[in-house]
User: Fold this.
Amino acid sequence: VRADWRRRPIVLVGLMGSGKTTVGKRLAAKLRWPFVDADAEIEVAAQMPISEIFARFGESHFRDGERRVIGRLMEGGHKIIATGGGAFVDAETRALILNEGTAIWLDAAIETLAARVSKRNHRPLLIGKDPKQVLGELMELRAPCYRQAPIHIISADGPHEETVNAILHALI
Ligand code: S3P
Assistant:
Protein backbone atom coordinates (compact mmCIF):
# COMPACT_ATOMS: atom_id res chain seq x y z
CA VAL A 1 0.00 0.00 0.00
CA ARG A 2 1.30 3.44 -0.91
CA ALA A 3 2.34 5.76 1.88
CA ASP A 4 -0.12 8.40 0.68
CA TRP A 5 -3.21 6.11 0.82
CA ARG A 6 -4.98 8.70 2.98
CA ARG A 7 -5.14 11.08 0.03
CA ARG A 8 -6.61 8.52 -2.40
CA PRO A 9 -9.95 6.80 -2.71
CA ILE A 10 -10.22 3.33 -1.21
CA VAL A 11 -12.03 1.13 -3.70
CA LEU A 12 -13.74 -2.08 -2.62
CA VAL A 13 -13.84 -4.76 -5.32
CA GLY A 14 -15.03 -8.36 -5.33
CA LEU A 15 -17.98 -10.54 -6.24
CA MET A 16 -21.63 -9.84 -5.57
CA GLY A 17 -22.43 -10.60 -1.94
CA SER A 18 -18.92 -9.92 -0.65
CA GLY A 19 -20.23 -7.04 1.46
CA LYS A 20 -18.65 -4.14 -0.45
CA THR A 21 -21.48 -1.72 0.34
CA THR A 22 -22.07 -2.70 3.98
CA VAL A 23 -18.38 -2.91 4.83
CA GLY A 24 -17.67 0.25 2.82
CA LYS A 25 -20.20 2.27 4.81
CA ARG A 26 -18.79 1.09 8.13
CA LEU A 27 -15.21 1.67 7.06
CA ALA A 28 -16.17 5.18 5.94
CA ALA A 29 -17.83 5.88 9.30
CA LYS A 30 -14.75 4.69 11.14
CA LEU A 31 -12.30 6.71 9.06
CA ARG A 32 -14.74 9.64 8.86
CA TRP A 33 -14.45 9.59 5.10
CA PRO A 34 -17.29 10.06 2.61
CA PHE A 35 -18.87 6.91 1.17
CA VAL A 36 -20.13 6.44 -2.39
CA ASP A 37 -21.71 3.44 -4.03
CA ALA A 38 -20.73 3.29 -7.72
CA ASP A 39 -23.83 1.28 -8.70
CA ALA A 40 -26.09 3.87 -7.06
CA GLU A 41 -24.22 6.67 -8.90
CA ILE A 42 -24.71 4.83 -12.20
CA GLU A 43 -28.45 4.56 -11.51
CA VAL A 44 -28.63 8.29 -10.82
CA ALA A 45 -26.65 9.12 -13.98
CA ALA A 46 -28.76 6.79 -16.15
CA GLN A 47 -31.99 7.59 -14.30
CA MET A 48 -32.94 3.92 -14.23
CA PRO A 49 -32.15 0.81 -12.18
CA ILE A 50 -29.15 -1.32 -13.19
CA SER A 51 -31.45 -4.22 -14.04
CA GLU A 52 -33.15 -1.98 -16.60
CA ILE A 53 -29.85 -0.79 -18.11
CA PHE A 54 -28.88 -4.46 -18.60
CA ALA A 55 -32.28 -5.40 -20.02
CA ARG A 56 -32.60 -2.44 -22.40
CA PHE A 57 -29.02 -1.79 -23.49
CA GLY A 58 -26.99 -4.86 -22.53
CA GLU A 59 -23.98 -5.46 -20.32
CA SER A 60 -21.33 -3.77 -22.48
CA HIS A 61 -23.31 -0.52 -22.48
CA PHE A 62 -23.53 -0.79 -18.69
CA ARG A 63 -19.73 -1.28 -18.49
CA ASP A 64 -19.17 1.90 -20.54
CA GLY A 65 -21.30 3.91 -18.14
CA GLU A 66 -19.67 2.23 -15.16
CA ARG A 67 -16.21 3.18 -16.44
CA ARG A 68 -17.23 6.83 -16.87
CA VAL A 69 -18.86 7.06 -13.44
CA ILE A 70 -15.92 5.42 -11.66
CA GLY A 71 -13.53 7.70 -13.55
CA ARG A 72 -15.38 10.68 -12.12
CA LEU A 73 -15.52 9.19 -8.61
CA MET A 74 -11.75 8.62 -8.57
CA GLU A 75 -11.23 12.39 -8.62
CA GLY A 76 -11.34 14.55 -5.52
CA GLY A 77 -9.23 12.65 -3.01
CA HIS A 78 -10.15 10.48 -0.07
CA LYS A 79 -13.45 8.58 -0.01
CA ILE A 80 -14.61 4.99 0.17
CA ILE A 81 -16.03 3.65 -3.11
CA ALA A 82 -18.02 0.42 -3.28
CA THR A 83 -17.99 -0.91 -6.86
CA GLY A 84 -20.20 -3.44 -8.64
CA GLY A 85 -18.66 -6.91 -8.90
CA GLY A 86 -17.68 -6.58 -12.56
CA ALA A 87 -16.09 -3.14 -12.45
CA PHE A 88 -12.57 -4.33 -11.64
CA VAL A 89 -12.77 -6.93 -14.43
CA ASP A 90 -12.93 -4.24 -17.11
CA ALA A 91 -9.27 -3.62 -18.03
CA GLU A 92 -9.60 0.16 -18.33
CA THR A 93 -11.61 0.58 -15.14
CA ARG A 94 -9.16 -1.66 -13.30
CA ALA A 95 -6.15 0.38 -14.50
CA LEU A 96 -7.89 3.56 -13.39
CA ILE A 97 -8.60 2.17 -9.93
CA LEU A 98 -5.08 0.76 -9.53
CA ASN A 99 -3.48 4.04 -10.62
CA GLU A 100 -5.65 6.49 -8.71
CA GLY A 101 -6.80 4.61 -5.64
CA THR A 102 -6.20 1.83 -3.15
CA ALA A 103 -8.02 -1.32 -4.26
CA ILE A 104 -9.19 -3.83 -1.68
CA TRP A 105 -10.48 -7.25 -2.74
CA LEU A 106 -13.26 -8.38 -0.43
CA ASP A 107 -13.32 -12.13 -0.80
CA ALA A 108 -15.55 -14.84 0.66
CA ALA A 109 -16.43 -18.49 0.15
CA ILE A 110 -18.96 -19.17 -2.62
CA GLU A 111 -21.42 -20.53 -0.01
CA THR A 112 -21.20 -17.27 1.95
CA LEU A 113 -21.65 -15.14 -1.18
CA ALA A 114 -24.59 -17.24 -2.38
CA ALA A 115 -26.32 -17.04 1.00
CA ARG A 116 -25.96 -13.26 1.01
CA VAL A 117 -27.22 -12.65 -2.54
CA SER A 118 -30.20 -14.96 -2.10
CA LYS A 119 -31.66 -12.59 0.46
CA ARG A 120 -32.38 -9.95 -2.17
CA ASN A 121 -32.28 -11.07 -5.74
CA HIS A 122 -32.29 -7.96 -7.90
CA ARG A 123 -29.07 -8.76 -9.71
CA PRO A 124 -29.39 -9.12 -13.48
CA LEU A 125 -26.58 -11.68 -13.75
CA LEU A 126 -28.33 -14.00 -11.28
CA ILE A 127 -31.98 -13.78 -12.31
CA GLY A 128 -33.43 -17.22 -12.97
CA LYS A 129 -30.12 -18.94 -12.26
CA ASP A 130 -28.53 -20.94 -9.47
CA PRO A 131 -26.46 -18.31 -7.62
CA LYS A 132 -23.88 -20.83 -6.42
CA GLN A 133 -23.23 -22.03 -9.95
CA VAL A 134 -22.97 -18.52 -11.43
CA LEU A 135 -20.84 -17.18 -8.56
CA GLY A 136 -18.50 -20.17 -8.85
CA GLU A 137 -18.04 -19.55 -12.57
CA LEU A 138 -17.58 -15.80 -12.08
CA MET A 139 -15.02 -16.42 -9.33
CA GLU A 140 -12.95 -18.57 -11.66
CA LEU A 141 -13.11 -15.97 -14.42
CA ARG A 142 -12.58 -12.92 -12.24
CA ALA A 143 -10.12 -14.04 -9.55
CA PRO A 144 -7.10 -13.24 -11.79
CA CYS A 145 -8.34 -9.63 -11.89
CA TYR A 146 -9.32 -9.35 -8.22
CA ARG A 147 -5.90 -10.72 -7.26
CA GLN A 148 -4.30 -7.57 -8.71
CA ALA A 149 -5.69 -5.54 -5.81
CA PRO A 150 -2.86 -4.78 -3.35
CA ILE A 151 -5.00 -5.78 -0.35
CA HIS A 152 -6.92 -9.07 -0.08
CA ILE A 153 -9.37 -9.47 2.80
CA ILE A 154 -11.37 -12.62 3.44
CA SER A 155 -14.75 -11.67 4.83
CA ALA A 156 -15.90 -14.72 6.71
CA ASP A 157 -19.43 -15.38 7.89
CA GLY A 158 -18.89 -13.35 11.05
CA PRO A 159 -19.79 -9.74 11.80
CA HIS A 160 -18.81 -7.08 9.26
CA GLU A 161 -17.01 -5.30 12.09
CA GLU A 162 -14.25 -7.92 11.89
CA THR A 163 -13.82 -7.29 8.18
CA VAL A 164 -13.57 -3.54 8.79
CA ASN A 165 -10.91 -4.12 11.45
CA ALA A 166 -8.97 -6.42 9.11
CA ILE A 167 -8.95 -3.67 6.47
CA LEU A 168 -7.73 -1.05 8.95
CA HIS A 169 -5.05 -3.45 10.09
CA ALA A 170 -3.85 -3.97 6.48
CA LEU A 171 -3.75 -0.21 5.87
CA ILE A 172 -2.15 1.11 9.03
C1 S3P B 1 -22.37 -7.04 -11.27
C2 S3P B 1 -22.53 -6.76 -9.92
C3 S3P B 1 -23.54 -5.82 -9.41
C4 S3P B 1 -23.93 -4.80 -10.49
C5 S3P B 1 -24.31 -5.50 -11.76
C6 S3P B 1 -23.19 -6.39 -12.32
C7 S3P B 1 -21.32 -8.01 -11.69
O1 S3P B 1 -23.00 -5.14 -8.27
O2 S3P B 1 -22.89 -3.90 -10.75
O3 S3P B 1 -25.45 -6.27 -11.46
O4 S3P B 1 -20.96 -8.02 -12.89
O5 S3P B 1 -20.80 -8.76 -10.82
P1 S3P B 1 -22.81 -5.86 -6.83
O6 S3P B 1 -21.48 -6.53 -6.83
O7 S3P B 1 -22.85 -4.70 -5.88
O8 S3P B 1 -23.95 -6.79 -6.63
